[in-house]
Amino acid sequence: MMTILGVPTQALFGQLLLGLINGSFYALLSLGLAIIFGLLNIINFAHGAQYMMGAFVAWMLLNYAGLGYWWALILAPLAVGLFGVVLERLLIARLYKLDHLYGLLLTFGLALIIQGLFRQQYGVSGLPYAIPPELSGGQRLPFMFLPNYRGWIVAFSLVICIVTWLVIEKTKLGAYLRAATENPTLVQAFGVNVPLLLTLTYGFGVALAALAGVLAAPVYSVNPNMGADIIIVVFAVVVIGGMGSILGSILTGFALGLVEGLTKVFYPEASATAIFVIMVVVLLVKPAGLFGKPA
Amino acid sequence: MLRGMRLATALGVLMAGCVAARADGPVPVKIGVLNDRSGVYSDISGEGSVVAARMALEDFKPAEHGLKVEIVSADHQNKPDVGSAIARQWYDRDGVDVIMDVVTSSVALAINQVTREKNKVHINSGAGSADLTGSQCTPNTVHWTYDTAALANGTGGAMVKRGGDTWFFITADYAFGQALQRDTSAVVTKNGGKVVGSVKTPFPNSDFSSFLLQAQASKAKVIGLANAGGDTINAVKQAAEFGITEGGQALAGLLIFSSDIHSLTPKVAQGLVLTEPFYWDLNDATRSFSDRFAKLFGGKKPTAAQAGVYAGTLHYLKAVEAQKSARDGAATVAKMKELPTDDPLFGKGEIRADGRKIHDMYLFEVKKPAESKGEWDLYKLLATIPGKEAFRPLNEGGCPLVKG
Amino acid sequence: MAHAAAPADAAPIAAALPETRDTKALHRIVFIGLAVLLAVLPFGLYPVFLMKVLCFALFALAFNLLLGYGGLLSFGHAAYFGMASYVSAYAAKNWGVTPEIAILAGTLTAALLGLAFGALAIRRQGIYFSMITLALAQMVFFFSLQAKMTGGEDGIQAVPRGRLFGLIDLSDDRVLYVLVALIFFGGLLLIYRIIHSPFGQVLKAIRDNEPRAISLGYRTTRYKLAVFVLSTTLAGLAGATKAIVFQLASLTDVHWSMSGEVVLMTLVGGMGTVFGPIAGSFVIVAMENYLAEFGAWVTIIQGCVFVVCVLVFREGIVGLVARKLRKPL
């Protein structure tokens, strides 16, 4: 058997594939964050809490309404996205003229409230959510056993990321969006309803977080704290990719998943720190991130 | 609303208590239940421990024994400084005599010190650190329910005897996880087993797939999970996804409670082997206690930590009754050690010189969904580990109290 | 709305109020009032609670020096606070040094850590600065979790309070309180001096308009690094003292939520006001202490405080008072 640095190549393939799967979550979450930051200039600290809400809504749909995974995949992002729209209208919209700092603090507070309320209601041990029967089981690849559901995660999030990117880059709506990011006053002058655009963008970003939450529900423990730790990592991903860069956040998300996968083989203890080390190095070499435009 | 009323009653009782103390009436005792009521361990201990303590009062009937007991409670938020500040205030200002439960090792160790300094009593139920009866033992602390040494001993020893003689550890990379791995490895090797490998995981961690694959590749018969809480839940959930147990490897949880298994459901956790000092469905006494508990607490069955609060409170009150005072903490603990323990949940036992409560431990396997007859029907008993063998021998803990 | 961050927004209203001669008199009155309060409060309130408030107040003051006067939002100040508390606890317990040496050792650690991290972080501005500080603090957290000296999840426990200068026994809460109050007051005076020195004036100029300060010939990065290190040193002093008070050091103090908490304290009290962080930390610590009965509601209430402060109460408690008095506090 061939080995690389003492690790069999086969095992290495397996680990890389798993890294790619984790990268899908990073990509989906950082994509939402990047879209929100790009247009609203808000660092959405509540993103982790909204990811958690996505998973919980999926659980609620199943237990209160009897609607399964496939329904949840559509309904949960809609519901949480709508919640995001309400938040934006009621609270966040009041902060656009202020420094970034206030947006960060407001959403930080929101995250505390949302997580606290869910803890109060559902406890912390987590709730069970089964893998949908259509996707249970797995494939025996030459180098590893790949559960079908993991394959589905990669494929589905890739599609979502690509579609989102195409919409932003190739459609008229996306053109408005990009224009509003550059110069909102001018776009408003052309008769585009910018406040509405902002609201919908926030709702969409939040919906992406919820979608990631639904995807995560069958494999990770569904509990109120599930988003609290991942959010810091996703921040790092967005910063490395370049704040506000759509393509940057997608590519960096997947790439960092791979890097993390490799550290888990060669130096597992450091796999949580690796991303932060990369972030510091990147920012020192390229201040605006890998794909960001220099300020 | 309810909490407010409870607070008001507590204050009322407190005033009444002060008046009573001056007269030559019943001996006043104040019990403080301090644990995590909002964070990761609130399901293991939390409000349920307060319910358990109140049930102990109901059963003991303090008035008939010349005692006047009240209960207060607080949330230490898993922060040692918050816990230690509450404990100091309770002891110095509010007249609390004993602090019960205290899940989370870091907070427990802090309370342990404060209690000694103020000469009060700490009966720990929720925390796992074996240091409480080892290098950091005090004449004021009793460690009731379990500790990591006993869990390692129970699961490690019993698994090897049942044929699981090659082990791979998935270890949370911090002091607690490493201690758990070290203790279990020692037991495994002592019983003739072999540790074939281990992987250290960052903490906290949500994705275990990569580490599970490494464990799978090791071909070890047993995969030991030296982690806790959300980490363990995630690891078990993903082990099911990757078909680890179907592949013939056994999964051993080194620190996992019935509330965790309940949340995972037998479908996901089936086949997992673990050690616990208590399970609601052990015998008639535990069943009737658990039914009463469930009625008071939203249908949930008690965890081992909550059961420990109940039993510890009962035994403490017996000692206070014998002493006719709760003033001198060390004297009360000495009395607790002198009296043999006997309660419906843990049976007959004793408290050792180092403060370690001795009772049987049980090796369980999580049932298959087909075997489980209800939401809380989780475990199948594999073996009973007698108290004498379950815990770390008295002379190995390094407790200074033992030498004398 | 686009990427042009307006630094003036970060500098709250109160700091922009003009200083006049009677401002100095007012500040003197506030200082005397604080000194009297420090002397009187332990008779009414529980000393351990007060010491906790003072430690956090000093922490928040240090943080505010950087944010309110340097215009730099660090989202990783827990690293300096927590590391100092570890080193102080370790020194007092394992080396058996007297408490003042332990506290000094902790403070020095925070200063060195601040120098290293600050040199990296101040090269970037605005949100990037916050993110780098956060990332660096995460590394410190993982270090603390895994290193032998910190005791992982258990923390360093049973730290002796010892004898100050080898003479004065600190095990009595009241004696220790005097020491903590003196440290706090000294820290406050130092920060006040820094803000009102020529150095402080240059800082404000950089905060308000960095390009202009550069064109005036100031080496702004040196000033920013200096204020960063001063801030981390004082944060370290607070953390090191806290370790002696509570006789322990634990992961709580290096976790990122602690970095969030100090922002909350500063925000509630009033960013960019001299005395705001004191009021803020009193409110937050009191909440944590007296709401302990209510379990999960503590975080929910904290979240609500954040939201309300950001939306309608950006100037904070002291900022509001300052506006009413039309004088900076």
From TrEMBL, chain A:
UniProt GO molecular function:
transmembrane transporter activity
> What are the protein's UniProt keywords?
Amino-acid transport, Cell membrane, Membrane, Transmembrane, Transmembrane helix, Transport
Which terms does the UniProt entry file under GO BP?
amino acid transport
* Transmembrane stretches, start-end: 12-35, 68-87, 99-118, 149-168, 189-218, 230-259, 266-285
Instruction: Read off the InterPro entries from this record.
Output: ABC_transp_permease, BCAA_transport_permease
Entry GO CC: plasma membrane
Record membrane topology = Multi-pass membrane protein
Pfam families named among the record's database cross-references: BPD_transp_2
Localisation = Cell membrane
Q: What is its main location?
A: membrane
Task: Give the family from UniProt.
Answer: Belongs to the binding-protein-dependent transport system permease family. LivHM subfamily.
Protein's name according to its UniProt entry: Branched-chain amino acid ABC transporter permease
Q: Which organism is it from?
A: Methylobacterium soli
List the top taxonomic levels of the source.
Bacteria, Pseudomonadati, Pseudomonadota, Alphaproteobacteria, Hyphomicrobiales
From TrEMBL, chain B:
- Designated name of the protein: ABC transporter substrate-binding protein
Q: Which organism is it from?
A: Methylobacterium soli
- Which CDD domains does the protein's record reference? PBP1_SBP-like
Q: What would be one Pfam family of this protein?
A: Peripla_BP_6
What superkingdom heads the lineage? Bacteria
Keywords for the protein's UniProt record, in alphabetical order = Amino-acid transport, Signal, Transport
- Tell me which Gene Ontology terms the entry assigns under biological process: amino acid transport
The UniProt record lists the Leucine-binding protein domain at: 28-367
Q: Which family does it belong to?
A: Belongs to the leucine-binding protein family.
What transmembrane ranges does the database entry give?
none
> Would you indicate the residue range of the signal peptide?
1-23
From TrEMBL, chain C:
Where is the protein found, in the record's own terms?
Cell membrane
**Any Pfam family the entry gives:** BPD_transp_2
Question: What CDD domains is this protein classified in?
Answer: TM_PBP1_LivM_like
Q: Which residues cross the membrane?
A: 25-46, 53-81, 101-120, 127-145, 175-195, 225-250, 262-287, 294-313
What is the protein's major site of localization?
A: membrane
GO CC terms for this protein?
plasma membrane
- Read off the InterPro entries from this record: ABC_transp_permease, LivM-like
Membrane topology of this protein = Multi-pass membrane protein
Q: Which UniProt keywords apply?
A: Cell membrane, Membrane, Transmembrane, Transmembrane helix
Record keywords: Ribonucleoprotein included?
no
Q: What is this protein called?
A: Branched-chain amino acid ABC transporter permease
Protein species of origin:
Methylobacterium soli
Q: What is the lineage of its organism?
A: Bacteria, Pseudomonadati, Pseudomonadota, Alphaproteobacteria, Hyphomicrobiales
